[in-house]
Amino acid sequence: MAAMETVEGGDEEEEEEAPPPPHAAVLEVWQSGLARLVRDPLLCDLPAQVTPEEISSQIALEYGQAMTVRVRTADASEAPMPVVVVQNATVLELKKALQRFVQLRQERAGGVPHISWRYIWRTYCLSFGGEKLTDDGKKLREYGIRNRDEVSFVKRLRK
């Protein structure tokens, strides 16, 4: 019986010696690793709080597997937003990438106001070269959109 107590006591000591790292410490290690990664010339345009998704997109851009589509707001008051999508992306994939871009930008600015994307897509559509991108399943390439082209929001007309 004394041997069992020793074994149990030994297990407790081992657990105390190597506690799992707290979430904050792991997050700090992760962020510092990403910060080092972002210093690479290929990834230097990315923000300090970069996401793995943004790193993958930047690498895909470098290898020609993705393209940047610049999206201008309807009032054209600010610079176009550089949204990265795969080369054979559809209009729907561009919309989702744009939503993610805006969400990340808002989180980094310190606030997370709610945007009703349902309202936005009901009220506006994207346009390229005077043509509205109304078919979500159609590929951007079919509309003639290439790397670094600019699309803009235009008001939908009621039927």
UniProtKB/TrEMBL annotation:
Composition bias type Acidic residues, residue spans: 8-18
Region annotated Disordered, chain positions: 1-22
SUPFAM superfamilies reported for this sequence: Ubiquitin-like
Annotated GO CC locations: cytosol; intercellular bridge; nucleoplasm; U12-type spliceosomal complex
Domain Ubiquitin-like: 67-159
InterPro entries: SNRNP25 (IPR039690), SNRNP25_ubiquitin (IPR040610), Ubiquitin-like_dom (IPR000626), Ubiquitin-like_domsf (IPR029071)
Domain of life: Eukaryota
PROSITE patterns (UniProt xref): UBIQUITIN_2
Pfam families per record: Ubiquitin_4 (PF18036)
UniProt protein name: Small nuclear ribonucleoprotein U11/U12 subunit 25
